[in-house]
Design goal:
With 285 residues, the chain is α/β, with parallel strands linked by helices. The chain has helices at 10-15, 23-39, 93-99, 119-126, 142-149, 165-174, 207-218, 222-241, 250-255, 267-278; strands at 76-81, 105-109, 130-133, 140-141, 157-162, 182-185. The relative contact order is 0.12. Its EC number is 2.5.1.25.
């Protein structure tokens, strides 16, 4: 039995009363069809005009809630941002950058960082005046550190990891240069104002909120926190007025029997969720 390709000759088709299949004619038809498609106008999606300062669409510009002039601070922020954050619509880092002078909020995008590709960041990590804001057993309380060392007299760098909690944890663990600076955490009893995005626990804060608290501590000026949180509150208020829902933390949902997703089977994940329910001071990065 021949399993090769079946070739129909025009003669055999005509003998059976069927029209002959002219290959060149079919090719011409295809060329004409694609030619017609090529002449159709291309629909270009029009992007909404964007405000150059707050990076929001002009119709929902948040500049009225930003300080008229950038805040004068001595502290320099370095935000290491997971690439996935760039595509998020409701980001807080552009609002943070819009509130600070140029050069005081440096955003570096990536997952892996090394001395060869990121020499400036590597130098910052080696600087003994650099702090990295990341909670954990080795972290010191930033407020206690500031009081003990008269930290406001020194110009500090602060590294903040921007991403989901799992992304931030992964970035911290897999980048050895992030283990060089002094590790600090915020122990203020605050609840996140970023209610349009789900947080793991009630005390977990957005990147902008972390920066606002850290700057207010280091600069010894509580007004900084209030000014930086103003555009975030306005963003959340606008979204809620236009159909967004309040996102309770996973901790809140678990404690109140409102968690409607399947419970994990992984033992480590189960222990983390149990810790969320029992430990009021956990922020699981």
């Amino acid at each position: 039995m021949d399993n090769g390709p079946c070739v129909c000759s025009p003669v055999s088709l005509e003998e059976n009363g069927l029209p002959a299949c002219d290959g060149s004619y079919a090719d011409d038809e295809l060329v004409d069809a694609f030619g017609d498609l090529a002449t159709l106008p291309v629909e270009v999606e029009e992007r909404r005009p964007t405000c150059l300062r707050c990076r929001r669409p002009q119709k929902v510009c948040l500049c009225p809630f930003l300080p008229q002039q950038p805040l004068e601070v001595s502290t320099c922020l370095y935000v290491v941002q997971h690439p996935a954050e760039e595509s998020r619509v409701l980001r807080t880092v552009p609002l943070l950058a819009a509130c600070l002078p140029q050069g005081k909020c440096n955003v570096i995008v990536g997952r892996r960082f090394n001395e060869e590709k990121h020499p400036e960041l590597a130098a910052v990590c080696r600087n003994d005046k650099t702090l990295i804001l990341y909670p954990g057993p080795k972290s010191q309380n930033l407020e206690e550190l500031a009081q003990r060392l008269e930290i406001s007299a020194v110009k500090h760098n602060v590294i903040i990891i921007d991403g989901t909690w799992s992304q931030a944890k992964n970035m911290f663990l897999k980048n050895s240069m992030f283990h060089l600076p002094k590790q600090v955490q915020l122990n203020r009893n605050l609840s996140s104002q970023y209610v349009i995005r789900t947080q793991p626990s009630n005390i977990c804060l957005s990147t902008l909120e972390c920066a606002a608290v850290a700057l207010s501590v280091l600069e010894k000026n509580d007004e900084i926190q209030e000014i930086l949180l103003r555009p975030l509150k306005a963003l959340c208020s606008f979204q809620l007025q236009h159909g967004a829902q309040v996102h309770h933390s996973k901790e809140h949902l678990l404690r109140n029997g409102m968690y409607d997703k399947p419970m994990p089977k992984n033992k480590r994940k189960i222990k983390r969720m149990e810790k969320l329910m029992t430990d009021h001071n956990v922020c699981p990065r």
